[in-house]
Write a structure and sequence with these properties.
This protein is mainly alpha-helical. It has helices spanning 2-32, 34-44, 49-60, 66-78, 101-124, 138-143, and strands at 47-48, 82-87, 94-99.
Length: 146
């Protein structure tokens, strides 16, 4: 009986570790796709930084704080993919970010690259990736990749 209890505990702990590892992988993938995510969010509407942070957390379950997002936004701005403007119509002034035409072009290129990569992985045997364009794929739908 004790052995069975220990086996159940080991399996439960193993599942917990796998879940934690998968969460790490999800966050790493989300971080790697942050440019796509932010540009897509801004393609649908202009946003201030905190709104971008909350949209990422709501859609992907990953929290990237101000110390990650604001330098990343500055980098996108330096590359010419987004612009910012101060909105002083609220109690607190907010810097609002908007995608540029260059950013939209980059997003289109990234989408094509992403599609090619998924296609290649699918051909290599990751057959479940062919559903990436299906309406049931939440990650893709969340960031708007067609």
């Amino acid at each position: 009986m004790v052995v069975e209890h220990n086996d159940k505990r080991s399996k439960k702990e193993g599942k917990k570790m796998k879940t934690q590892e998968l969460r790490k992988v999800d966050k790493q993938l989300t971080r790697g796709l942050l440019d796509i995510i932010v540009l897509e969010l801004l393609r649908s509407e202009a946003m201030h930084g905190y709104k971008i942070i909350t949209a990422i957390r709501r859609n992907f379950g990953a929290y990237f704080g101000p110390s990650t997002i604001y330098p990343f936004l500055n980098e996108l701005q330096e590359k010419g993919y987004i612009t910012s403007q101060w909105d002083t119509n609220h109690d607190r002034p907010r810097k609002v970010y908007t995608i540029t035409s260059e950013g939209k072009n980059m997003l289109t290129g990234i989408e094509q690259s992403f599609s090619t990569i998924v296609s290649r992985l699918s051909r290599m045997g990751l057959n479940r990736l062919h559903t990436i364009n299906s309406p049931h794929n939440t990650m893709v739908n969340q960031i708007g990749i067609k």
